[in-house]
Amino acid sequence: MVNTRRSLGSEPLSPGLPYYSTPTRNQRAATAAPTAPSTAPPAVRDDTSTAANRSEAATATGYQTPPDRSSSSSSNSNPGRRSTTTTRTNTQTFGRQQSRLRRSAPAKSTTQVYLAYDDRTMLHGAPDGHPDARNECPRRVEVIKERLEELEEDLMAYVTGDDDNATDGEPRGGGQRFLPILSRHATRSEVELVHTPEHYDYLQSISGLSREELKKKSAAEENSKDLVWNEHTFDAALFAAGCAIGCVDKVTTKHDGGCTRAISVTRPPGHHASAGSASGFCYLNNIALAARWALANGRAKRVVIIDPDIHHGNGTQDITYDNENIFFISLHRYEVDRENDFSFYPGTGQPNECGSTKAKGMNLNVAWSEPDMGDPEFAAALSELILPVISAFHPDLVLISAGFDAAEGDTIGDCSLSCRGYYAMTRSLLKTIGHDVPVVAILEGGYNLSVIPGCMEAVALAFLDEPFEPALRDLVKADSLPRELLEELFGPIDDDGNGEPPHTDEQVERHQTMVRRGTTFGRQELLRFWRHPHREGELDVGIEPRSSIAGTNDKPLRGVKLSAIQDINLSMQYLRKCPFWKDMWSMNIVDLHDIPESAGVGDVDEVVNSSNALSTGVSALENMLGGLKI
Q: Considering only CA atoms, which of 348, 316, 381 is closest in space to residue 561?
């Protein structure tokens, strides 16, 4: 097969700056002995690095990276640290079964996605022997980049006609699915849209310290702030922030045929960094900078930041708490045991923290009170609370803090989200807001090198409008409900809203229609994981029975954990008290009714057979629309 892949993020680099690059999979394979061609699907690559590459990375950074990348968690003597004393089972194949199934699947879309990546963000690292070298380590971005390169190669092989199964006459495009963005530093003026001048000066001063001083500083701040330092820390943080801003710049630039989605695969992460301080592996708040940049430059008026990282984005909340143009939504663990002096890092993000002054209601915390939250719990939170309020807020830019430490197998999060769960969550969000709203995913946490590539691949597949697995390829369409039916029901939507609660009857009716349509699309993507007990069979159009999907290894469907239902309802109750959402609820624009606890009892029923799905979905829509017959 002709190799049509180029290395992601291979745009020219800024002059005068060091460049660190690791070989791509094909470059490494070129040094091996040639083998006979095979007709079998491409083998799934092992995400663990070779000893030679680990040595190369160590030489480039001046630091030693641990040879064992397993997910075993070290003991934690400080209960406030990000690491926990619990350890989840790690399987080297987690998240890859679906990739193996997908390899032989043809591309179903021509959607393109901007990608920001720079090898120089790998130069920031932990000193020798530092325990956090196993967590926020340089290899995080490299293994994700390698997986996305494989993904693009697989998709390009079909659309360029290199696939043996492609027949003459099949449509073929150019094949490039990821469009690299020229990386750059964030400027001082951009950084100071969020951070204080003193914080900028402090970070800049660190780069001038000696190696011994940097080691001492890292050791001193290991327990207090979870920060490590080297001479490249400030440079890498500026690149991470600049790439986030660059992604927003690209997706919000108005031009014909341009793509509206982007992914930033950079480090260090940012959502724990506040205006005047760094903490929790974070130095500059990349996503808050991107949001403020968009508002300051007239690229957006209403920004949603959704943060599913299992640690609360306390820095992002602090920065956006009084901004009525930024709606911050976080799903995270909130566990504080003062009697035993324990809190799950960072110990913030209570559900009653809803914003201040004019921004009351613009901060939403879904605070999980227990570990081991998985697909059903996150699906329920999105379906019943998050998707409806996002649709009602009517954003013109959505930013995702793409943290993957809620994934099964993560070394820190102790939760159980699957790659398919990340795909469904992302797709439900995209369906809710529509294709014209720009979306950027910015890497945050996620520390198991065998897990995070599959999670980011799932997000990328959703961004690319591709199915997650071949068995679903014919079911993934631009809209899962029949277009003619939707147009007949909802008609055209006026997207010129200003984010304010509607006042006239006509405005209310138009807003009701918009929210109902967006929520309908989004909720349907989550039906594989969760069912509202009072909406059985709703919107099941085109959904196959799970048992009919050959080759999948799904866990049996289960009910939502009772504690999760209580957590979601508590967040909903606090939000309903805020004037903005109280008005929306009273006008029946957004449905914020508590989830009945019966949703957490017993196993969830199997998805209904597609032969009965259309009539069931239509009946549900008729009921939803007050008896209107279709």
A: 381
